Structures are given as structure tokens and as C-alpha cells.
């Protein structure tokens, strides 16, 4: 039997990091089993679907390494609507489902409770199809439904506690629960690996598989991803969109490595490992049962390590979208013609060891390309103190006299300027840094001045000096 798994997102918003994790788990499982990964877009909620969300899913999957053309699909759930209806009809004809026209209020009036599920009123009343008649599945009165779950063992559900649930609405349209089963069935899915939040649906879905006469799949319900307050990650509250991380400059390699560590770890107390190790070692049955904390700080640190591990030339390439502004990445503050690739290449190794996400490259290098630096006013006020004006004057004089404009000479020269005032280098260079780059933090100052060049450095220090009059 060929293993067939599927990833079945609904295109109703940005692509959730939790979804990306499920996709990767499915992907790796399929690869390990010599199986097939199917992508199915569950687009039956017409009111909430948008084609751009589908495109977002495809491109986000591509980014994370599940590339277009290397899987089966995408299939669209809406294209299978005929099959969904046919399955509903088969269940009715075989007596496994029946029509019901009760409203919620009717049920409440009979059971005396708003919390009670459906009471089976129409089970044997022989109501036929008609407008407003929902189709309900006749769940068994006795016995249990045992779900085989690679992560949870065998969760067992008492059938008598499962109400006769709706499988098609009063307008005849099948509900998600049924459509999802029918699609898995027609696509020959053998293993359903998905988020834990679907577990309550699983006994119902398994009953549908059985009633439709097909052996149910093996399930794996992966614990949810939570924030630092142990709340399920929500798109309203938390930063969950994979696209947002991509645009901020997380590397795909770091992201997918981190996602796979949510609730699982490779052998040997390691976290950052080559993808091939994850592909070899990942086991669904080792996934932790408790919810996994999505720790953005840790992800940042991870990403920094991935950035530092890049060969410099790759780092330079990886920065390009932020240096030019591509697609959804905003343009940098300088004009394209102001950009100087050689100057960038000269400082790139310095930046590479200092940034954690690629978008941080922009504030680190903008001083090199802008005609005058973007002054951070708070930094200016904090740094420019009594004596700064004179210090800048002395720095200008000393720099003008420099024979060789290189980092080492710049450093020893400024050190001497400070020493005359009894200042350490840190204090001496702070006003110079703010004058030249506009900021208090950034790349090593003297290397920056070397690349910026004598003329521009002096112009900026003089301009700052004038502001201090
Ligand atoms: N479309 C469902 C979702 O996005 C998938 C359900 C499933 O994987 O079975 O949550």
C-alpha cells in the first residue's frame, strides 16, 4: 500500500505557522514512507475564501521547501462537490442518515437544556428530503469508536455520546465534516496528520468512513502551537503568518528547522541541524503530547545563527530583497541609484554577525547610501552633551590631517582626540557615530567610516557640529 498523506488548508487568511508545521510533518512522513504528499485547498467556505490566500499558501509552501510540482495537486475541494452530494445521498439511501427539520429551539424545548445535543427526534419519523430538511448521520447507539492515532495511541469514544450530527444542511449542501472525509476517500488518503483541534471531529469522521464502506485512515493529531501565555496562537492576537516572518527576513531553513522543533527534537541534544537529519530522524510517534510554545525570541536567535552560517556571498544575495524592496517587502529609504554594491559588499561581513533577521540590514547600512544620515532624534539628544561640539571639531581636524583613510588609523586618531579630554574610546566615538550614521548602535564605526570615505564623513561631522551651535 502506498502511503498517501494530504495537507488540506482552508484559504481563509494568511498562512499560519501551525499550518506550515503540519505541512512539513506530512511532507517528511510521506518522504520517509516512500509515499505521496497531496495538497488540497479546502475552499468550500465561499464567503471567506479568496484566491490570493490560495496563492499565498502555494508560495509559502514553496518558500519552506514544499515546492510546486513536487507534490500531487493542488486539488480544490469545491471541484469535488458532486462526490460530496453523492456520498450524502448514499448514506441516506442506506439508512445511515435521515432528514430532520428541527430547529435548535425545537430541540431545546424538548430536552429542556440548551447544552444538550440533538435528541434523535426524527430518527424514525420517515421525513423525506425537502427545503430546510437537514441530513443527520445516525450514530450507533452502542459500542465505541476507536481511533488509531500515531501520536495519541487509541483514543476511544463512546458512540452513545456522539449525537446524530448534521452531514448536509437544509439547502442540501454537505458540511465540512463530510466533504473532508469524501475528499480523503476519493484521494486515497491513508494517513491524516493534522492539528489536535480536529480531534473532536475524528470519531464522527471515522464513523462516516465506516458507513461509506471504506477502511478509515490512520490518524495523527499534532498538539497545537501556543504563545507565551499558553494560549493557542491566534491570528488576531499573535504574529502567526508565515509570510510575515518571511518578509521580516527569516531564512526558510531556520524557519522550517524551528517549526519541526515544536514538540520534537533530534537526537543528541541538538537543535540546529541539517534538514536531512530532521528528515531522517523525525518520528510522528515521538511528538510531544503537550502543546508547543512558539517562542519568537528563540526563533530569532536561531535565525541569527543561520545567517551567520551563510557564506558571505550568499548572505549578500539573501539581503537583496530588503536592499531593493521586492514584492511585499517595502523599499529601503535610499533611491536605487544611491545604492553602491561595492560599499555594501565591504560592510556585509560586519553586518552578517550582527543581525538576527535580514530586514535589519537596512537600518545598519542606510547611512552608506543616503545623502545625509537619518538622524534618530532621541539618540542625538542622549549623545550630544556639553563638549560634544568641541570634540567633533577636534575629530574633523584630526581626520583631515590623516594620511591614510583606513579603519586602524581612524581609530587611533580618534582615540588620541578622546585621550586629550580624558575620555575612553566609547565615549569619544558616540557623538561621531551619531553624526555620521544617525544612530547610537550599528556596525563597527571605524570600518564604517573607511567605507563611507573621507569626504562624506567630514561633511557629516561638520553638519552635526553646525546643529550644535
Ligand atoms: N481545512 C481544515 C483546516 O484548515 C483541514 C482539516 C483537516 O486537516 O482534516 O483546518
From TrEMBL:
Keywords, in A-Z order: Aminoacyl-tRNA synthetase, ATP-binding, Cytoplasm, Ligase, Metal-binding, Nucleotide-binding, Protein biosynthesis, Zinc
Domain Aminoacyl-tRNA synthetase class I anticodon-binding, residue spans: 314-464
Motif 'KMSKS' region: positions: 232-236
Chief location category: cytoplasm
Note accompanying the cofactor annotation: Binds 1 zinc ion per subunit.
Domain Glutamyl/glutaminyl-tRNA synthetase class Ib catalytic: 3-300
The keyword Membrane appears for this protein: no
Localization: Cytoplasm
Source taxon at top rank: Bacteria
Binding of ATP, residues: 235
Binding site for Zn(2+): 100, 102, 122, 124
Catalyzed reactions per annotation: tRNA(Glu) + L-glutamate + ATP = L-glutamyl-tRNA(Glu) + AMP + diphosphate
Subunit structure comment from the entry: Monomer.
Entry similarity comment: Belongs to the class-I aminoacyl-tRNA synthetase family. Glutamate--tRNA ligase type 1 subfamily.
Name the UniProt record assigns to this protein: Glutamate--tRNA ligase
Lineage: Bacteria, Bacillati, Actinomycetota, Actinomycetes, Micromonosporales
Gene that this polypeptide is encoded by: gltX
Amino acid at each position: 500500500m502506498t502511503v498517501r498523506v494530504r495537507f488540506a488548508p482552508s484559504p481563509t487568511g494568511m498562512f499560519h505557522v501551525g499550518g506550515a508545521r503540519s505541512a512539513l510533518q506530512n511532507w517528511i512522513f510521506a518522504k520517509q514512507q516512500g509515499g505521496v504528499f497531496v495538497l488540497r485547498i479546502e475552499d468550500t467556505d465561499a464567503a471567506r475564501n479568496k484566491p490570493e490566500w490560495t496563492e499565498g499558501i502555494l508560495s509559502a509552501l514553496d518558500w519552506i521547501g514544499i515546492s510546486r510540482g513536487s507534490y500531487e495537486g493542488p486539488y480544490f475541494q469545491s471541484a469535488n462537490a458532486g462526490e460530496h452530494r453523492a456520498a450524502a445521498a448514499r448514506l441516506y439511501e442506506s439508512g445511515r442518515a435521515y432528514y430532520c427539520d428541527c430547529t435548535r429551539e425545537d430541540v431545546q424545548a424538548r430536552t429542556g437544556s440548551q447544552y444538550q445535543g440533538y435528541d434523535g427526534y426524527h430518527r424514525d419519523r420517515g421525513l423525506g428530503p425537502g427545503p430546510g430538511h437537514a441530513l443527520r448521520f445516525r450514530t450507533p447507539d452502542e459500542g465505541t469508536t476507536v481511533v488509531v492515532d500515531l501520536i495519541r495511541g487509541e483514543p476511544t469514544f463512546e458512540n452513545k455520546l456522539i449525537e446524530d450530527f448534521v452531514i448536509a444542511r437544509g439547502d442540501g449542501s454537505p458540511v465540512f465534516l463530510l466533504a473532508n472525509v469524501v475528499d480523503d476517500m476519493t484521494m486515497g488518503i491513508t494517513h491524516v496528520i493534522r492539528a489536535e483541534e480536529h480531534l473532536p471531529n475524528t470519531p464522527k469522521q471515522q464513523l462516516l468512513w465506516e458507513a461509506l464502506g471504506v477502511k478509515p485512515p490512520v490518524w495523527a493529531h499534532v498538539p497545537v502551537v501556543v504563545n507565551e501565555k499558553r494560549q493557542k496562537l491566534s491570528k488576531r492576537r499573535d504574529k502567526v503568518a508565515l509570510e510575515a516572518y518571511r518578509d521580516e527576513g527569516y531564512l526558510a531553513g531556520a524557519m522550517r528547522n524551528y517549526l519541526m522543533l515544536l514538540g520534537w527534537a533530534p537526537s543528541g541534544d541538538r537543535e540546529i541541524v541539517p534538514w536531512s537529519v530532521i528528515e531522517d530522524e523525525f518520528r510522528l510517534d515521538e511528538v510531544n503530547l503537550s502543546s508547543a510554545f512558539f517562542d519568537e525570541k528563540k526563533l530569532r536567535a536561531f535565525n541569527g545563527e543561520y545567517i551567520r552560517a551563510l557564506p558571505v556571498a550568499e548572505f549578500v544575495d539573501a539581503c537583496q530583497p530588503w536592499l531593493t524592496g521586492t514584492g511585499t517587502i517595502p523599499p529601503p529609504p535610499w533611491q536605487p541609484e544611491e545604492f553602491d554594491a561595492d560599499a555594501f559588499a565591504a560592510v556585509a561581513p560586519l553586518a552578517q554577525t550582527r543581525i538576527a533577521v535580514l530586514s535589519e540590514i537596512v537600518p545598519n547600512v542606510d547611512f552608506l547610501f543616503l545623502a545625509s544620515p537619518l538622524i534618530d532624534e532621541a539618540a542625538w539628544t542622549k549623545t550630544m552633551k556639553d563638549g560634544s561640539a568641541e570634540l567633533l571639531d577636534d575629530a574633523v581636524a584630526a581626520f583631515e590631517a590623516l594620511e591614510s583613510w583606513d579603519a586602524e588609523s581612524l581609530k587611533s586618531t580618534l582615540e588620541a582626540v578622546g585621550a586629550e579630554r580624558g575620555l575612553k574610546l566609547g565615549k569619544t566615538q558616540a557623538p561621531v557615530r551619531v553624526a555620521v550614521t544617525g544612530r547610537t548602535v550599528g556596525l563597527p564605526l571605524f570600518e564604517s567610516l573607511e567605507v563611507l570615505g573621507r569626504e562624506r564623513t567630514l561633511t557629516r561631522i561638520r553638519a552635526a557640529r553646525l546643529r550644535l551651535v
